[in-house]
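User: Sequence recovery, please. Input:
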């Protein structure tokens, strides 16, 4: 699908309805612009909370306080002294 739109003097573009419908974009949604060479790609960004549960976490690592996660990560990355 090729659809054109004009850029205003403020650098704004209204997303054409056909594009909003095709990507499922509605008022208040965030979008991502990725520049690839001499063109840009527009994508709808997922809701952060909508990603919950999409990554498998081993049972032993569930329900761990964030401070403990940071401590463990930093300890694992620290250089080992001999």
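Assistant: Recovered sequence (82 residues):
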């Amino acid at each position: 699908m090729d659809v054109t739109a004009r850029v205003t003097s403020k650098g704004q573009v209204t997303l054409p309805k056909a594009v909003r419908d095709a990507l499922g974009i509605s008022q208040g949604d965030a979008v991502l612009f990725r520049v690839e060479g001499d063109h840009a790609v527009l994508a709808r960004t997922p809701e952060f909370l909508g990603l919950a549960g999409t990554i498998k976490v081993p049972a032993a690592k569930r329900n761990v306080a964030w401070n403990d996660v940071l401590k463990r990560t930093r300890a694992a990355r620290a250089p080992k002294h001999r």
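The radius of gyration is 21 Å.
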